[in-house]
Structures are given as structure tokens and as C-alpha cells.
Design a protein that fits this description.
Rossmann fold, 43% helix
Length: 122
């Protein structure tokens, strides 16, 4: 049995087989399985750039901000006001602002899925 196969046919079948094999081995999370809870994102640094991140993330939906950290009292006040003004069902986040290592306390105490760091560069 000496059946020849063209290069094009071989590559087509190989690609289809590879795609099928890879797809079968993918975890369920890659198929967009339903979330059991909102993502819990914390913020370190809530100056102008940080507040923009807070606003965009919370308005996107499916995200909850249980806590944020900033040592500037003005930034803390403005971030609280921003979250209250968004008119979304969101509890008031816990604030960590007791000095330059307050972010460490937030990271230890809070159950966060991710953290956005938006501190200034200096």
C-alpha cells in the first residue's frame, strides 16, 4: 500500500488534529464558565490616575473593591466620594492610610483577587 498524500493535505489534517487535541485538554475556565463571585480588586494609590482606574473598573461590572490604600487624606476623601457618586450597588471599601507601609496591612488582611498599583513615580 503506497498511498501518497500531498503536502497541503498533510498540513491541513495535522492542523485540525492539533487544534482538536489542544482544545480537549483546556481547562473549563477558558470556556467562560460562570463566576461564583465578583472579582475583588484592591488599589494602592488613589490619586488622579488611581481614581480613574477605580472608576473604570467598578463601572465595568463584575468587580468589587473591598479596600484601597493611600497615605494622602485628600485622595482618600476624593476616592470615597467618587465611589459614592457612581450610583452602583457597592459597599464602602475599607481604607488603609496609616503610613507608608499601610499597603502591607491591606494585602495581609484582605481577600483580594488582584491589586492595581497606581502610586506616583517619585
Amino acid at each position: 500500500m503506497n498511498k501518497t498524500i500531498s503536502r497541503k493535505s498533510f498540513l491541513t489534517h495535522s492542523a485540525a488534529f492539533s487544534a482538536g487535541a489542544v482544545t480537549l485538554g483546556m481547562p473549563q475556565i477558558l470556556y467562560g464558565s460562570s463566576r461564583k463571585r465578583d472579582l475583588r480588586i484592591g488599589f494602592i494609590g488613589t490619586g488622579l490616575r488611581g481614581r480613574n482606574h477605580v472608576k473604570n473598573i467598578l463601572l465595568y461590572g463584575g468587580v468589587h473593591c473591598p479596600a484601597f490604600c493611600d497615605i494622602d487624606p485628600d485622595a482618600v476623601t476624593k476616592t470615597k466620594e467618587l465611589i459614592a457618586s457612581l450610583e452602583i450597588d457597592h459597599p464602602e471599601p475599607k481604607v488603609y492610610s496609616e503610613g507608608p507601609t499601610a499597603y502591607q496591612e491591606m494585602l495581609q488582611k484582605e481577600d483580594l483577587d488582584g491589586v492595581i498599583i497606581a502610586t506616583n513615580w517619585s
